[in-house]
Amino acid sequence: MRHHAIHISVLLAEPHFCVLVELGKTRVFCQVSGELVPPKDSRPTEGIMFFNLELSPMASPAFEPNRQSELLVTLNRQLERCLRNSKCIDTESLCVVSGEKVWQIRVDVHVLNHDGNLMDAASIAAISALSHFRRPDVAIQGRDVTVFSPEERDPIPLSIYHMPICVSFAFFLQGSYLLVDPCEREERVKDGLLVIAMNKHREICSIQSSGGIMLLKDQVLRCSKIASVKVSEITELINKALENDRKIRKEGGKFGFAESMPKERITTLKRDEVPVEMTDVKETASDIVDRTETTAEVVPSAVLVGMGTAQIGEGIVNSWALEEDEEDEPQTEDRKTGTVSDVCFCAVE
Amino acid sequence: MRTMMELHQSCSNLREYGSEQCLLSKPDGSSTFVQGDTSILAGVYGPAEVKVSKEIYDRATVEVLIQPKMGLPGVRERAREQCVRETCEAALLLTLHPRSSVTVVLQVIHDDGSLLSCCLNAACMALMDAGLPMSHLFCSVTCAISKEGQIITDPTALQEKESRALLTFAVDSVERTVLMSSTTGSFSVQELQQCIAISQKASEQIFQFYRESVKRRYSKIK
């Protein structure tokens, strides 16, 4: 079992709320956001929760971008089961106009450093971020919906019934040895894994056993007892961090990732705002502009060939044809050819 | 929340910045770089094995990945990745590690303006932390030209939205030459040269910061 440095730091700018969780050396970052979308046809009065866990290539050399590995699928599925199937969030309250507009709450979890036990860290990060999230206030007048910005009206928290948190157990030697909260090396040599999602009211939200080892009834019961102790500790920690953040926000102090960087460490350094000297910038600039020669080449003007087609430049002689020269092909409006290199201009943004 | 007064006065300031190195255990080098409220976390793996399809016979292959906060990486991230990759390729001594890969992964923690600059600064600090051989360090400064023609350094997201041009330059540490420039919006030649000159001046502060943070980091080693 590792020392729980559950460092939860929450960020400044509304409406983005995010949480950074450190479980030992494992680091996970979770971002919650909301937008108004039409609801699913099968459930017109319920909001939509969307969970997305990503294994960042930063977390481990084994993680490659855009690769659906088994670990990723397992983690995503377990996170969904833990949070969606346990019905910890009241989705009915996310409905704005039944059948037309509901809130879609999107939870993005990014794994930043993999030192084992990603499931626990991800579930802690997700539920803390959901508890911290505030959605914009809406006013409904008939069919018109007005969404207020955070400056106009205070945003509203989500209605969360309970906080399910996963606890992982690793088994060794056919179940004779048990480790809570395994680190990465322990995970690599484990025989089997048991993940119990529980809330502080001692209700089990989900149990998953993988690895194919057979567990006895009293082993599972023992694990659930250990899990309930851990979950109550972790829930305490989360509530304390959220309370801290609420206090700081009320007092108007500074908060956010920038502030939470520990200052007394040797590997960190912070600098205050510094002015930039702009004294002889204008002279230097004019100097450079005067010194450079103006380009002699003039861009040839466009020739309208027909409706919707223009031509710039003449093009080089077509050397593909077998017969003698053909007419220059008319170019489309925004393609530039000529004796200069072929450059295609695309309209960006 | 800054008032309008403060926003006008801080036009030629660099916001307060900070960084932390070596904070992740798995990557060979890692750092965070914070500029005001914009924070980026960078992780570097290298020199490591490279896929045969991507290997170059005489140099290391540099790969940059930018992960946005929400959703999957899109075209915008790819454009930024290209800027960062080209700057890194210019600074790293790639010929020392042929047929290897250097991977830089950048995670956006929060975006409050000057995102590309913050990415480049974080990448440089992470490359330093990983100990990869470089011919020079690089840093980056963003300038925004407001509608009235005023040049603002290190703009916030609000200032960026209200500007008519946004210019980002990467500057090298030896001769303060421009390694990479990425601009949007319209501006005159004069304004471009002014922004370059301002970026070169501002880069002095950032290089000084790099020096101090590395000195601090190794201060306990006898």
Summarize the structure.
The complex is a heterodimer of chains A (349) and B (222). Chain A is of the alpha+beta class. Chain A has helices spanning 70-85, 118-132, 184-188, 217-251, 257-260, 281-291, and strands at residues 9-10, 17-23, 26-37, 48-55, 95-97, 101-113, 134-135, 138-141, 144-147, 156-157, 165-172, 177-180, 192-198, 204-210, 268-271, 274-275, 303-306, 309-311, 335-336, 343-344.
SSE layout and pairings?
The complex is a heterodimer of chains A (349) and B (222).
Chain A: E1 9-10, E2 17-23, E3 26-37, E4 48-55, H1 70-85, E5 95-97, E6 101-113, H2 118-132, E7 134-135, E8 138-141, E9 144-147, E10 156-157, E11 165-172, E12 177-180, H3 184-188, E13 192-198, E14 204-210, H4 217-251, H5 257-260, E15 268-271, E16 274-275, H6 281-291, E17 303-306, E18 309-311, E19 335-336, E20 343-344
Parallel strand pairs in A: 4-6
Antiparallel strand pairs in A: 1-2, 2-3, 3-6, 5-6, 7-10, 8-9, 11-12, 11-13, 13-14, 17-18, 19-20
Chain B: H1 4-9, E1 13-14, E2 17-21, E3 29-35, E4 38-48, E5 61-67, H2 75-91, E6 101-110, H3 115-130, E7 138-146, E8 151-153, H4 157-161, E9 163-172, E10 178-185, H5 189-217
Parallel strand pairs in B: 5-6
Antiparallel strand pairs in B: 2-3, 3-4, 4-6, 7-8, 7-9, 9-10
